[in-house]
Amino acid sequence: MRSPPGALTRSPGIHLGGAELLLVFLEQAYRLEMDELFVLAPYVDTGAFSDVQLRSAWERLLPMVDAAIVVRTPASADAFLRFSEGRIRGLDVRVNSRLHAKVFVACRRGSEVALTGSLNLTGAAMHVNDEVGILINPGAMAELRRLVLQLREVAVTALRSGTVHAAKTLDCVASRHQQRRPLLRAGDPLASGMTVTPKTRNAI
Predict the structure, then answer these.
(1) Which of 3, 44, 71, 74 is spaced 20 to 30 A from 84 at the CA atom?
(2) Threshold 0.90, pTM exceeds
(3) How is 130-188 classified by DSSP, letter by letter?
């Protein structure tokens, strides 16, 4: 996986790098036992899963999560479905022809991690292109947690505006988000007074 020239920029809770950050994101989501995964990736192809280490990370995480995947084309939706077949707990794949954002969010109550940047889920992004990404691993930092939860809201907005391509399990991911299931534990510092205003069309 290619990364930008020069050393990675790191500060508490934030790492700047290239496509290699997707592997870090997946490994952290697995280690933290996340149970929800949101992916906004306009384009997906099977080349994105050709790297053994990256494919293994996907295969470990997918059985743990309910996943919402939003792509731009039916071909991209089919590419993800071919890879994930039989591996995933709950799956909602949607097509949104306006999608341009690239956002990955994994979460459970009380914990979140996110990746955003330029990379699609394609072989070119993973192995050829010079990509840039920002990995946000907030830990207990309230401001970064708010940022990740706002990215989650952007993903939910994109999900709702997409057309269903495939859904696994009757209690699919989107139906749970219609109920606005809270992700903050009782007593969480963000639970009181937190207002999240998701961006709409221009942010997606």
Answers:
(1) 3
(2) no
(3) ---EEEE--TT-HHHHHHHHHHHHHHHHHHHTSEEEEEESSS-HHHHHHTT---SPTT-
Say which residues have a Cβ less than 8 Å from residue 142's Cβ, sequence separation at least 6: 189, 190
Beta strands in the chain (DSSP E): 9-11, 14-17, 36-40, 66-71, 90-95, 103-108, 111-117, 133-136, 163-168
| Location of structure tokens 């697995």 | 30
- DSSP secondary-structure letter at 44? B
The answer for residues whose C-beta is within 8 angstroms of residue 33's C-beta and 6 or more apart is 64, 108
- The pLDDT profile of the chain, 204 residues, written as one tens digit per residue, is 555 444 455 678 999 999 999 999 999 999 999 999 999 999 999 999 999 999 999 999 999 999 999 999 999 999 999 998 877 788 899 999 999 999 999 999 889 999 999 999 999 999 999 999 999 998 888 999 999 999 999 999 999 998 888 775 434 444 455 444 444 444 544 444 444 444 433 433
Enter the tokens of residue 129. 């292109």
Cβ contacts of residue 186 below 8 Å, gap of 6+?
Answer: none
Q: Token pair for residue 118?
A: 């330029």
Look up residue 181 and give its two tokens.
């299931």
Q: Collapse the DSSP code of 29 into the 3-class scheme (helix H, G, I; strand E, B; otherwise coil) and give the result.
A: helix
